Amino acid sequence: MRVLLITGFILPVKHEDPLLEIQKKFLSLAEEAMKVKKLRFYQRFLLLCWRFPPGLAIMDFLTSRKTGKARSCMKIIYTLQHPQSEHHLNGRVGSWTDWDLTELGAAQAQRIAFHLKEELKDKPVRLLSSDLRRAWHTAQIVGQALNVTPEKEIRLRERNLGEAVGHSVAWLKENLLQPEITIDDRLFPSAQTRREQYVQLKPLLEELLAKEEEILLLVSHGDTLGILHALWLGLEAEALNSIQLAGSAGGVSELWLRGGKRIVRRLSDLSYLC
């Protein structure tokens, strides 16, 4: 146990205290400082609190003082691109072809799950996943580690490549209608364009932001998450003609909504595989 003495205020801090607990202690000190009308220290404690995210934000804390209710400062969305799948090795098209994880991919999912469990510290999480096996298998592994039941969300599927589903990548390249240069180029008669997937994902993101859950975890696919991350940044569909946010298998991204600002804390972080 360490005790920080800050100009007459006592802050007990344990080494193993999660950041949220440390932040709560600074908020408690801020309350104490306000009671004795030491405004300068009140402001200082709030600033110190701000340096220990995630937890309660300053504006939410101030709001809670007026309403009498403590509410969360922000929403955190983790996105996880499924790790190694069979189609990464066999030269076949992913898309809606329902490949599973490889043995290595399942082991990678276990490592990701371990790190997420350590990071989230039993915080309540809602877990949504594409229903395709490679993503769903990943979600099941992560959900077991977090003691959370995953939910299927079909809009998190990979983009549908129509007639190419079930074929090899070589077949796709030989038979596509046109190269995919713009977001409106359709590779096959029944394939989705990138604009169509953008339109499909936009209401999903709006729904996620409206949910009460403070922490969401989405398990999906590379193309899908690239567009979802662009939506998070507020990019219009046309921006995807010249911008691509590419991830890697097993990459974890962390998105924060705090004080009305959308923040990208990390993008396709592969350290979770270690």
UniProtKB/TrEMBL annotation:
Cellular component per GO? cytoplasm
Q: Which Pfam families match?
A: His_Phos_1 (PF00300)
* InterPro entries membership: His_Pase_superF_clade-1 (IPR013078), His_PPase_superfam (IPR029033), PGM_Phosphatase (IPR050275)
Q: Where is the active site?
A: 82 (tele-phosphohistidine intermediate), 158 (proton donor/acceptor)
List residues binding substrate: 134
- Which superkingdom, per the lineage? Bacteria
Gene3D superfamilies attached to this UniProt entry? Phosphoglycerate mutase-like (3.40.50.1240)
**GO terms assigned for molecular function:** phosphatase activity
SMART domains the UniProt entry points to: PGAM (SM00855)
Q: By what name is this protein known?
A: Phosphoglycerate mutase family protein
- The species this protein belongs to is Holdemania filiformis DSM 12042
